[in-house]
TrEMBL record:
Lineage: Eukaryota, Metazoa, Chordata, Craniata, Vertebrata
Name of the protein in question: Sialate O-acetylesterase domain-containing protein
A single GO molecular function term of this UniProt record: sialate O-acetylesterase activity
Organism: Balaenoptera physalus
Entries under InterPro entries matching the protein: SIAE
GO annotation terms (biological process): carbohydrate metabolic process
Length: 199
């Protein structure tokens, strides 16, 4: 889905639709949806589209991303058809960082408040911005010092309007495919613990 302009109030509805489109895995193909693929369009927002912001006029980019997935999944072509997702999360509590290691190379185009962390105390959680800190060709560190309690989860692009047209922070460097939105639970608070993305 493309971005949705619904006014000034935050709305998790569209990201939830994006999430459920993947059977709650955050990526496809997966165990419930084999032989499928996802063409991400959340960075193709179109504020002035006469058909509504979820229907961008840039159909060429949508078609290009769809054709990449079809070639890879249906025809077995060896090519990159989906943007990078983190495959490992490492909490560096003593440094106040959350380190994300991606399954593919990443290109960081800009820094903004697109990452959030769930900070919990006494069974009450709230989402806080997690600024991007350092990054390399395949890793990205988030500053999580704003959470002085228990860090429960991290999410990326979890808004109805995460970025402007082709201006999301993370892309694959050669294919120019955007990193998909995700939510990952952090199940162990031991500093340095490595966890796979759970959701």
């Amino acid at each position: 889905l493309s971005s949705y302009l619904s006014g000034a109030t935050p709305n998790d509805g569209l990201p939830q639709i994006r999430w459920h489109q993947t059977a709650d895995f955050g990526y496809v193909p997966n165990l419930r949806m084999p032989n499928t693929f996802m063409a991400v369009a959340m960075d193709l927002c179109d504020r002035n589209s006469p058909f509504g912001s979820t229907h961008p006029r840039d159909k060429q980019t949508v078609a290009y991303r769809l054709h990449l997935g079809a070639r890879a999944v249906a025809y077995g072509a060896k090519l990159t058809f989906q943007g990078p997702l983190p495959q490992k999360i490492e909490l560096l509590g003593d440094m106040g960082l959350l380190n994300l290691t991606y399954s593919q190379p990443i290109q960081v185009q800009r820094h903004n408040k697109i990452f959030e962390i769930s900070c919990c105390s006494d069974h009450q959680c709230k989402w806080l911005p997690a600024p991007m800190d350092t990054f390399s060709a395949q890793t990205l560190a988030l500053n999580v010092k704003s959470c002085r309690d228990s860090l429960a989860a991290v999410r990326y692009a979890w808004t109805a309007w995460p970025c402007e047209y082709k201006q999301c922070p993370l892309y694959h460097p050669t294919s120019a495919l955007p990193a998909p939105p995700f939510t990952a639970f952090i199940t162990n608070q031991i500093p340095g613990y490595r966890s796979k993305v759970a959701k």
